Amino acid sequence: MSFKRFKKQNFIIDSANKFTAGKMTKRDFLKKMGMAGVGFSAYSAGMLGGPGRPFFGNVAHADGHSTTPPEVADFLREAGKPYAGTTIRYTSEATPPTNVLNELKSEFTELTGINVEIEIVPLEQVLAKATQDVQGQLGTYDIYYLDQAWTSTFSPDTIDPVEYYEANPDLAMPGFDFDDFSKPLVEGICEYDGKWIGLPFDIPIFTLMYRKDILEKHGIEIPRTYEDFTKAVEMITAAEKENNIYGTGLQAKSGHYSLECDWTQAVWGHGGSIFGADKNFSGNDEQGIAGLEWYQNLLKNAPAASVTSTWDGQWQMGSAGQIALCQSWAEFFPGWNADDSKVKGLWEMAKPLEGSASLRSRDDVGFGEIPGWGHQGGSSIALSRYSKNEEAAWLFLQWACSKDIMTRCTLIGGFAPMRNSSFTDPRIVERKGLEGSGTTRHLDTVKWTIDNVMASEPDLPIWAGVANNEIPTELGKLLTGQEYDGSAKKCMDQIAKLVDAVVDEADLG
Amino acid sequence: MISRGSLPRWLTSEHPLPWLFPVTSLLVVFGLYPVLYSLWLSFYKRNPATRKEKFLPSWNWNKLISDDRVWDAVEITLTYVVIALVLQLVLGMLIALLLDTDRKGFGVMRALMTLPLVVPPAVTGMMFLLMYDSSFGVISNSLYALNLLSPSAPILGTSSTALWGVIVADVWQWTPFMVLIMLAGLRALPREPFEAASIDGASGIQSFFYLTLPMMSKIIALAILIRGIDLFRIFDYVKVMTDSGPGTATETLTAYAGTVYFKTANFPYASTVALATLIVVLVVSSVFIKVFKIKF
Fold first, then answer.
1. Contact A480 B158 (CB under 8 A)
2. How confident is the model at residue B17 (pLDDT cuts 50, 70, 90)?
3. Which residues in chain A touch residue B127, judged by CB atoms under 8 angstroms apart?
């Protein structure tokens, strides 16, 4: 990478960081993006308007320089020759890994001559675009970004990467090593019916994060259970509300998938599940109601903006020093502790709260749901069965998910890697001692959560719709007082009715 | 000079068909075809799991009738249309009356009035979203300071205020359109009846109610028709500002069609909801045209 480009990338990332931290106006941000030659479309929908995950911060970009192993670089040069000049397209939400990959993709083009267009749009548009593409088998997109909730929906439309790797030795990247991917992640994110539908790409996962200064000030121990958490949250809200600090913050935007994620965590944590073994919705049983009532109580101890916030707003609450405890996406952590953060070095991470001892087993639930204490919201990137540039797209997919790129994405973005080898990479290990920008001290907790208590939503082809529509919409009605008079039971009974009807209509029961 | 005889026969024909062809083609491709395609889609039942579609003409229409969210959306759409229309009409008329003068500087003011119209609705939505923000939004904080609202109930996060929040953005952007129409009408009114009324001792208010309003009735009806149809298909502000929430407090018919389309990918049912919106608009506007005897 040339020095000039490296400086330019720093400039872009620093500007994005300042904008998401609220330290730069939108006008200045757009002006700087213009100066850097960044197209407005890439950032507009994903970062400025749409409910995308914010770019949580460059924490260690100085170490993100190219370290592509020579044999991999040689392979890409040779294998890419027949496809030089080809343009491959993929659409994605503005996730931190996608944003980083968007910055690094020119390295791939330099090696192979293959151009890559990444279209960044809000999550529901990614779903709509991918759905249209597969419906018409158009091949508009060569690669799909697939949220874990959509795995079974798109399983017929993607090519199994393991099979493709074995069937096409000329296009097989040396040392790609499928076994290096974290097994729980493969199972939870990209495996369906014994088939890989794509390669694991990112893993936002729920852990507990806390402001150590506020807990110390009030003599509160790090919460271990849901009861501890409630007590701590209530105590902090009562003591600090005048300082505009709340016990916790939520991503409870009605009708948005973020609310569904919060809800599932609460249900699993109280020993419930989304579906029972009979494949009927079970969120309206005793445990499910207990989980939702716990969540309703949390809302009283959270900023009012929680009901209009997705993960983006929740991250901003933590970044602005407005909340003291948060059980949410671990990828918030690096940005909250970055050098330019108002709360740098004050956030710490702990294992997710210990839920009910009666956590349901996988046999007690339906549709492949995995109850646990750490909700995962990972995603994969998958090769489209309808791609007209299958080989070129496959080369990009391998490059994007290679050991080197995945490790560098973690170094730049600070989020958890997909590969076991990345966790033990010396560049990542040496940053565990850091307090501010570049810290990787949270990754051990993230790995423990992935390996031991990771929870996954059910795999059923209609889940994308249910998780984005029926469940969060009715929850929103309850939480904002539009219906149900505050009764969690009434709300859950209505959701049960709606979800079971959708399942019946799809003949999945 | 090109002689008439050197041109192709179809180009010199006085028959209207060749001249209507371009615009008819555009209408067929971008107007008629999408409607017919939607109608065709609405006759299919889609299984979202298998993506297979089965010809069942009444399935989606029955579902539409029994879908509570559709009826809620109809109610919200009508509420939205009526409130926004009344506010825009009254404000539009008042501002037009103020600007209906030849005094110096008012020409510039009339031009400035049109500025909100050039802002894309999605940008307007974003602008108001920021102004309503409970932490730093100028509108929210002003209302908190005046004790008219509580910080614990964000404007767009509370079901009783969210729809008003969206309507205000719409009124801000589209009142100037009403002003332009009213102003054009006012400036075209004959002066004589007003002079005669003035000589007879009529007050300004009497002149307005007994002369201006009756003479402007056709223009007002036309303005209501144009804005009313536009308001029925409200989508941008809702999508950007509330995404139909909280709950379904701001879910209009078009927003619901969008939700079905984008979130559940049930294209046939989304088409049915969209067609239902079209039917409502056609019925309401036809009745309106009939009642107010509007002629184009």
1. yes
2. confident
3. none
